[in-house]
Specification:
α1 (2-33) packs parallel to α5 (143-175), α3 packs antiparallel against α6 (183-210) and α4 runs antiparallel to α5. β2 (248-257), α8 (262-279) and β3 (283-293) form a beta-alpha-beta unit. The protein folds into 2 domains: 2-210, Cation efflux protein transmembrane domain (Alpha-lytic protease prodomain-like, Up-down Bundle), CATH 1.20.1510; 217-293, Alpha-Beta Plaits (2-Layer Sandwich). The protein has a 3-stranded mixed β-sheet with strand order 1-2-3, covered by helices on one side. The protein has helices at residues 2-33, 36-62, 76-103, 113-140, 143-175, 183-210, 217-228, 262-279, and strands at residues 235-243, 248-257, 283-293. Helices cover 68% and strands 10% of the residues. It is built from 8 helices and 3 strands; from the N terminus they run αααααααββαβ.
Length: 303
């Protein structure tokens, strides 16, 4: 778990440094080249810095052990950061959309090859960051790293729009296509919708976790299958589980023979807990409640 957390922290640090460098490049190039699209993309990247700092802070808080005030650990700090990133993406989407729509009613700017190069550099850089962080995020099940990855994906969309818009503008200048001057804002409007969709997905998952939404039904079914392998389990009364940031807490109620001793019940609980935690490394806590089962009552089908 410690190695996985270290990988997540490293991924966020790399993202933060990259966002700072790209922000300086885009804003600097946008001012020097008088490129509205690069300037807008640079401001968007500045928002990414804030989001990445939030992800980094939450990831560091989430590794703190449980205490008296937080008996289930601090894992949900990552979920809060993920929700914050979703808000940043919504604001970015509206910013890109507003700038793009406004550009449709203004005289088109003059595109340059340097602006195209800066946008292409951002596209390649952000695509590499997305592939790296999404891989780490899925491996560590870190909500803050995954949110950072999707933030990079939103930047990929924005940079791709800039490349296409500037490229169409340059081609239009060469071919005397007057309509091509508006390729950039049209692409920006499309990107704003894609970023909004990303924000919705991240925000919805964050709300589900904060509201104690059950894990996927497929995973619950796997847990039940594991319980059925123990012949001491005569009845499965309830199985539920919830994500708590980058880890999962499972709650189980099963029926066992009512003449078992406390020691026997303890051993059964210990074995069931080991079964689930060995199967799913994301589970850090299994709470088991044993209910009495009397001979003659219905029991699980033969194994």
């Amino acid at each position: 778990m410690a190695d996985r957390h270290h990988s997540g922290i490293l991924a966020i640090w790399i993202s933060l440094i990259s966002n700072i460098v790209l922000t300086l490049i885009k804003i600097g190039a946008g001012l020097i080249l008088a490129s509205p699209v690069l300037l807008a993309d640079g401001v968007h990247n500045a928002g990414d810095i804030i989001a990445t700092v939030a992800a980094l802070t939450s990831s560091m808080v989430s590794k703190k052990p449980a205490d008296d005030d937080h008996p289930y650990g601090h894992g949900k700090a990552e979920v809060v950061a993920s929700a914050f990133v979703a808000v940043i993406l919504v604001l970015a989407a509206f910013w890109i959309g507003f700038q793009s729509i406004s550009a449709l009613f203004e005289p088109p700017g003059e595109e340059s090859w340097l602006a195209l190069s800066a946008a292409a550099l951002s596209l390649i850089w952000k695509q590499a960051l997305y592939l790296y962080t999404i891989k780490i995020g899925k491996a560590t099940n870190s909500k803050s790293v995954l949110a950072t990855a999707y933030d990079h994906l939103a930047d990929v969309y924005a940079s791709l729009a800039a490349v296409i818009g500037i490229g169409i503008g340059l081609l239009g200048d060469h071919m005397n296509w007057e309509w091509a001057a508006y390729g950039d804002p049209i692409a920006g409007i499309i990107v704003s919708l894609l970023v909004l969709k990303l924000a919705y997905g991240i925000g919805r998952e964050s709300v589900d976790i904060l509201m104690e939404h059950n894990v996927a039904s497929e995973k619950l079914a796997h847990y039940e299958d594991l319980l059925r392998t123990d012949k001491n389990v005569k009845r499965i009364d309830r199985v539920r589980a919830r994500e708590h940031g980058h880890y999962i807490i499972v709650d189980i109620r099963v029926g066992v023979r009512n003449d078992y001793t406390i020691q026997q019940g303890h051993d059964i609980s210990k074995h069931l807990k080991k079964l689930i935690m060995d199967f799913d490394p994301d589970v850090i806590e299994v709470m088991i409640h044993l209910n009495p089962w009397e001979a003659g009552e219905p029991e699980l089908a033969s194994r």
